[in-house]
Design a protein that fits this description.
Blueprint lengths: L1 H7 L3 H17 L4 H10 L3 H12 L4 H11 L2 H13 L4 H10 L2 H12 L7 H29 L9 H13 L3 H16 L8 H27 L1
């Protein structure tokens, strides 16, 4: 477990501003400090929390909020499938706990070492060590964001920070043609469907972006195979 903590430690400072933004976003949406902190405990997913806060603030239906959060977090299903050969034999209690703590950072660190056989100890302890600190830092950062957000005068209009955070998250992952297509289609559809009933615009955009990215990736692989 100690080795996992040491591995994740350099990434923890970068989580703080994102967690603070999640707390501030909850306040900006009118959800209140308790709900903002509870979202970090229950949802524990950065991008999903920001979107959920926005949708709840806009008065979206609960089913729309849940569906959108699930679409955004679909990558966690792929992460879990990738980790299954290394952690799939654990008791259900362990798998449930580690599944709750699964993040992009802990997955990247763990799967790299597991696939390269760089960790000789119990893999689940390494994963726990790489995951638990992220949860602690995220929760503390959210509390700090809620506290700071409560102290910021309403006339400052700090809600503009939410789109900036999404831009920061988006730019690093747009690396190839399928990801560019997914970003353009998802964003374009979300804007075009902004006035959709029941606040479905964001959900429609997310689904369209994921679908277009998958189609583009499939076509690209087919062309590569045909050319080889």
């Amino acid at each position: 477990m100690t080795e996992g903590i040491r591995a994740i430690a350099p990434m923890l400072p970068g989580i703080v501003p994102f967690g603070m933004t999640a707390g501030i976003a909850a306040l900006e949406a009118g959800l209140g400090p308790a709900v903002g902190i509870a979202m970090s405990v229950i949802i524990f997913a950065g991008a999903a929390q920001l979107v959920v806060a926005q949708l709840l603030g806009d008065g979206a239906l609960p089913v729309i909020v849940i569906l959108t959060a699930l679409v955004i977090n679909l990558r966690m299903v792929m992460y879990s499938a990738s980790l299954a050969p290394y952690l799939g034999t654990l008791p259900f209690s362990w798998k449930a706990g580690l599944g709750y703590l699964l993040t992009d950072q802990s997955y990247a660190l763990s799967i790299t070492r597991f696939m390269a056989n760089q960790y000789a100890g119990s893999r689940h302890w390494f994963f726990l060590g790489a995951s638990a600190p992220v949860w602690v830092v995220w929760l503390l950062a959210t509390v700090l964001g809620v506290w700071l957000g409560s102290a910021i005068p309403a006339e400052w209009q700090v809600g503009f920070a939410l789109p900036l955070v999404f831009l920061v998250l988006l730019v690093p992952v747009v690396r190839d043609r399928p990801s560019v297509i997914a970003a353009m289609v998802g964003g374009g559809v979300a804007v075009a469907a902004y006035q959709a009933p029941y606040h479905l615009g964001l959900t429609i955009g997310a689904i369209a972006g994921v679908a277009s990215g998958v189609v583009a990736e499939t076509l690209l692989r087919s062309r590569r195979r045909a050319g080889s």
